[in-house]
Write a structure and sequence with these properties.
heterodimer, A: alpha+beta, Rossmann fold, Dna Ligase, domain 1, 16 helices, globular, B: mainly alpha, 17 helices
Chain lengths: ~500, ~325
């Protein structure tokens, strides 16, 4: 019977999302736990088949386009949802709104404002100008309403005390929202009863919210703005998401070659002629956006796009140049930026971070590389990292040399003992490390979609949750508080 | 809709029709020639290459045509743009680039066709069981067409897909008539029953023909059927009328566009032709002309829908 599922389950001293250190079920997991307790292994297997069928029938098989055979695979979703109670979420939400508000203010100040942040020496000028994401071509390009980070994905982890900390900011092209929506759609079919009893806040208004935000940032002269999603094309690994978002919003999914520019106005080529475009939600990196200004060998972009944006005839979202703010060395200054721009204490703390250009901090780090995590500042997606405790001596020596050669390009962080969550491994549950990427939209106001993408490291003991490295995902349930409506009034009304 | 999407759908239809018709013609030519003397066979293979506009390309890389070399060239040679592997590969590329515009079922029908084709040992199949291979290609093409009919919403995407499909089929039936006419009528005016059955078979038309014309194997009846039947969905007139309907639905009401005018003209040329006169005099020229105009229609469709303001773009690039 069901209790078997938890047979041999141990929290191993980690912060467990479902069980307290004393082995008690946390209150917000009670309904799920009780339901699981009634499941036999057969029942569980049946639910897994239901999940697979739900994914297939929704067409959520991801074609790996690069391969000759057109392999289709699924991003594994664990059957157990991750649950966040209302009060915890209120804290997270407030922290994210605060952080993204400050980051938008910072980017606006830097690219379009007085650059007060430099004059007041909040962040060293050289640190910003030496960032790979710093973009001189972004100076003076209008960003309506200062919505530089129209879509932000802020990666959070929970440490051994259960404290939510920001691990990194993704302010350029954060992906993963399609998994959030698809996981939810599948989960309501797989565990409908638990779901129905739990007052889970919906996420399916994301498309409408994103479209509203994109229309909000249209150039002021555009009456009824035309929005498009700009994708690098079918060979991009996130193409599914680009197409998914275009479909959710009911707008065209275009490639660079579908757009043409005349007199600094962007048009798309349709079968009925040229149609003006006002807002481009681009999922192409800055470097490839416009061969006139950036990489000249880019076939993905639109020649003249930056000039059109500069002329104020089209809004490009996310704004160009955001990379300077999610540079991992600049990340260390975000708490200061929050204090500087908002006059508030940061609600969500960073992970303890060492800046390696600083000789003292570097010396301290080089002595104990085996205990730390080292990351290149401009990468995302878990590439090029050193995880000290899991590294060989040779790897540590290699990173030492790299850091000494280019200290600006690396940061070091304390290893966070990521929280764990019961996860179905074969026919029983084991604790696996998780993180959380909530999605934050900046439109008329800064809005956080309840929950986000919970990624889970499926390999035992692994701290790496990226899908390319054996990661899976979980549906993430944010519970509505007592007397709190499931949806904000604005969404309910529209 | 986006011009690029429309163009990809248009070509998806064309490539698939091309693949299926190539298989049909190869099938009939191969099996019709099994007992023929080498001279006659060589001529028949030349005619087939001719009708597929592939003779020059073949001769550049091969010597004298025979069953094995022509079959390989037209089936599995990736260097031949018109080979079955090339056209199916391109159909898949086109379908993939409009993956979001077509149903999942349609994408899967195209993709599994491609996967099956490329999983086979085609060289071996051509030597051992060409009939089975050609049958597979025909069935797969029919399966894709049927899936499209069952799953595509009747929007502009559907119309572009079918417009390409119908124009290609009209042209291919013209080609087919042209090659069979050359083989059967010019070479041997008294050619018999079996030869004409072959002609009809390459258009998958023998049963429909017999229903319409009973036992008659008068060559003018066969030509009339393949050219003018209002009920047989591969006849030239049927395809042109369908294409005309889809194009009409894509164009704004009012003045006819250039593409509509040319398509209407070639349809009328076919519709009002005197078949007996044609057979006695200039069927060959007539069919060549029809093919020429059908290709012209495709060009005008591209100009009207797919290639907006290329000059404007160059202009913009030049200024920047």
């Amino acid at each position: 019977m069901g209790q078997d599922l938890f047979d041999g389950y141990a929290t191993d001293g980690f912060y467990d999302e479902l069980l307290t250190a004393d082995g008690e079920v946390r209150p917000h997991y009670r309904a799920l736990y009780d339901k699981l307790a009634t499941f036999s292994h057969e029942e569980l297997a049946r639910r897994e088949r239901l999940r697979d069928a739900a994914f297939r029938s929704a067409g959520i098989t991801f074609t790996v386009y690069g391969e000759e055979e057109g392999v289709e695979r699924t991003f594994p979703m664990d059957l157990l949802p991750r649950i966040i109670p209302a009060d915890e979420w209120a804290h997270i939400e407030a922290g994210l709104v605060q952080r993204v508000t400050a980051l938008n203010r910072f980017l606006d100040d830097l690219y379009l404002g007085e650059r007060a942040v430099l004059h007041d020496n909040v962040v060293p000028r050289w640190l910003l100008t030496s960032s790979a994401g710093f973009c001189r071509q972004a100076f003076g390009v209008p960003v309506p309403h200062g919505a530089h980070c129209l879509v932000a994905g802020i990666d959070l982890v929970r440490d051994a005390d259960g404290t939510y900390r920001v691990l990194e900011d993704n302010l350029r092209n954060p992906s993963g929202i399609s998994y959030v929506l698809e996981n939810r759609a599948a989960m309501t079919r797989v565990l409908p009863v638990v779901f129905g009893q739990s007052r889970v806040r919906p996420v399916d208004h994301y498309g409408a919210s994103l479209l509203r935000a994109l229309r909000h940032v249209a150039p002021p002269a555009a009456g009824d703005p035309t929005v498009v999603v700009l994708t690098p094309g079918v060979y991009n690994s996130a193409y599914f998401e680009h197409a998914f978002l275009a479909r959710q919003m009911g707008v065209e999914l275009v490639e660079g070659r579908d757009l043409v520019i005349d007199e600094h106005v962007v048009y798309m080529r349709t079968t009925r002629g040229l149609q003006r475009v006002d807002v481009i939600y681009r999922r192409i990196d800055d470097d490839f956006l416009d061969p006139v200004v950036f990489r000249q060998d880019s076939m993905l972009g639109v020649p003249g796009l930056m000039a059109a944006a500069r002329a104020g005839n089209v809004t490009v979202a996310n704004a160009v140049g955001n990379g300077v703010a999610d540079d991992k060395a600049v990340y260390a200054f975000v708490p200061e930026l929050i204090r500087y721009y908002l006059g508030e204490e940061p609600i969500l703390p960073n992970v303890e971070t060492y800046l390696l250009w600083d000789a003292d901090q570097r010396a301290g780090v080089l002595d104990r590389l085996g205990e730390l995590v080292v990351k290149p500042v401009a990468e995302s997606g878990g590439y090029g990292m050193l995880i000290g405790p899991a590294a060989t001596d040779a790897e540590i020596a290699e990173f030492r040399a790299r850091i000494e050669a280019d200290p600006r390009n690396y940061i070091a962080q304390e290893v966070v003992s990521l929280s764990r969550h019961p996860t179905l491994i074969d026919d029983h549950l084991e604790g696996r490390h998780i993180d959380l990427r909530p999605f934050v939209l900046t439109g008329e106001r800064v809005e956080v979609i309840p929950g986000g993408l919970t990624r889970v490291a499926l390999r035992r003991g692994s701290l790496v949750v990226n899908s390319s490295q054996g990661g899976g995902s979980k549906d993430t349930w944010v519970l509505a508080g007592e007397g709190q409506p499931l949806e904000p009034a604005e969404e309910a009304a529209s | 809709m986006l011009a690029r999407h429309a163009e990809s759908l248009f070509w998806t239809g064309r490539y698939l029709e091309r693949a299926g018709d190539t298989a049909r013609m190869l099938d009939v030519t191969y099996h019709g020639l099994l007992e023929s003397p080498p001279d006659e066979a060589r001529r028949a293979w030349y005619d087939l290459l001719e009708v597929l506009d592939a003779r020059a390309a073949f001769e550049a890389t091969h010597g004298e045509p025979d069953a094995a070399s022509v079959s390989r060239f037209l089936v599995l040679d990736p260097g031949n743009d018109g080979s079955i592997v090339s056209t199916v590969g391109r159909a898949r590329e086109s379908a993939r680039s409009v993956r979001e515009m077509i149903s999942t079922e349609l994408w899967e029908a195209v993709n599994t066709f491609y996967l099956e084709l490329f999983a086979r040992n085609l060289r071996h199949d051509l030597e051992q069981q060409p009939y089975e291979l050609y049958g597979m290609v025909k069935r797969r093409c029919q399966g894709v067409a049927g899936t499209a009919v069952e799953t595509m919403p009747r929007d502009d995407g559907w119309r572009f897909l079918m417009l390409g499909w119908m124009l290609e089929r009209a042209e291919m039936t013209c080609r087919l008539l042209n090659v069979r006419f050359a083989q059967l009528v010019e070479a041997d005016p008294t050619s018999g029953f079996h030869d004409w059955i072959g002609a009809l078979k390459s258009a998958s038309a023998s049963e429909a023909y017999r229903k319409a014309y009973r036992a008659s194997m008068d060559r003018s009846d066969v030509v009339e059927f393949l050219l003018l039947s209002r009920t047989f969905p591969r006849s030239v007139l049927y395809c042109l009328e369908e294409a005309e309907r889809f194009l009409g639905e894509l164009c704004p009401p009012g003045e006819l566009t250039h593409a509509q005018r040319l398509l209407g003209r070639v349809r009328a040329d076919v519709q009002f032709v005197d078949v007996h006169e044609l057979i006695d005099r200039d069927l060959h020229d007539f069919l060549d002309g029809a093919q020429f105009y059908i290709r012209g229609v495709a060009e005008l469709v591209a100009t009207q829908f797919f290639r907006h303001h290329v000059d404007l773009e160059l202009h913009a690039l030049g200024r920047l």
